[in-house]
Amino acid sequence: MSVVFPAVRQCLRGRGEVQFTVPDPHLGPGLYAGEATPHGRHRPWAVWADLADLLGAHLLTPQPAGPGRVHVTLRAWAPTPDPDAGGYGPDSPWGRVDKLEDPVFLATFVEALRRVDPPPGGRVLALGVNAGRELDALELAFPGRALTVVGVDLNREALAAAQARHPGAQFHALDVGALPPSLGRFDLVLALSLLQSPGVVQDVLLSRLRRNHLTPGGGLILGFPNARYRDGTLSYGARMRNYARPDLSLLAADVTNARRGLQKHGYKVFVTGKYEVLLSAIPASKRTPVDLEL
Questions:
Q1: Taking 80 as the threshold, does the pLDDT of residue 211 lie above it?
Q2: Fewer CB atoms inside 10 A, N or C side of the chain?
């Protein structure tokens, strides 16, 4: 790989697309990357997918290249803006993104929901709800369970889309940093891809939620982005301004601080996920549910 990586990178930079032949990964189940086969060094498809992501390219559909080998083609991402560059309204490019199509997010989010386990008739508060796509997971996690859902966002167009998607829920145009006491208390608070937003002070918001808006047995699910979307592709790694490559420093610090603060105030904390790191917290006195899988 130390030879393949720079050669493929150079071709991509020069031509925007590169094709090369490799041993067919389908012939090597059980082999580790780099182990010898009659057709060359085995590398699973995950290696080529990671290489494509690392080099900012799409991995195209492989084609046969003779006995035991296949053509692998990488095509550089188009130089399009990130989907959130134009805001988060339902008609912006961000409105095309559906996190529930990411199998890791779907599985870990449903597990986190079942870990908090709001009771039948319980109340759910979704902060930064946007168009409400992620609320679809509530029915997946709790089929047939009646829940009162309240969503909060500043974007009124997104709230209108959320209301159309979830007509039985309530949605309010509110600043998450100034939630009124009249909003009440909730058995589950969701804050996905919110805490690192401009103007949000994580420690202050979590303290207010804990003191003013959680029931005694309630829990939280916090989402921290660890990826970005480029040219229709979900690319691994949290980005920092003016950094060419992903850097997880701020992500690690924010997750650690949230975990430490919640544990200090009597919560059990679980950290899961990949492209979005999910921190779920439940009271330490509460039994940890099992059989959480989707």
A1: yes
A2: N
Phi-psi region of 30 (alpha: psi -120 to 50; beta: other; left: phi over 0): left
Q: 93-283 — its CATH code?
A: 3.40.50.150
Identify any residues that bridge with 229 across adjacent strands, giving them in sequence order. 234
Q: Give CATH for domain 4-76.
A: 3.30.110
Please give the mean pLDDT across all residues of the chain.
Answer: 94
| Burial grade of 177 (CB within 10 A; 0-12, 13-18, 19 or more) | exposed
Tokens 């492989």 belong to: 62
pLDDT tens, 246-285?
889 999 999 999 999 999 999 999 999 999 999 999 999 9
The per-residue pLDDT for range 139-187, each reduced to its tens digit, is 999 999 999 999 999 999 999 999 999 999 999 999 999 999 999 999 9
- For strands 57-59 and 40-41, give the pairing: unpaired
Indicate the SS3 state at residue 26: helix
Measured distance CA(274)–CA(256) in Å, rounded: 16
Structure tokens given for 287? 């039994």
Residues paired with residue 69 on neighbouring β-strands, in sequence order: 23
Largest CA distance in the chain: 70
- Tell me how far CA of residue 201 lies from CA of 46, 195, 242, in angstroms: 37, 7, 22
How many whole angstroms separate alpha carbon 70 and alpha carbon 116?
46
Cβ 166 vs Cβ 132: under 8 Å: yes
Residue ranges of domains in the chain: 4-76, 93-283
The sign one gets for the Cα dihedral 256, 260, 261, 262 is: positive
CA dihedral 262, 264, 104, 205 (to 10 degrees): 20
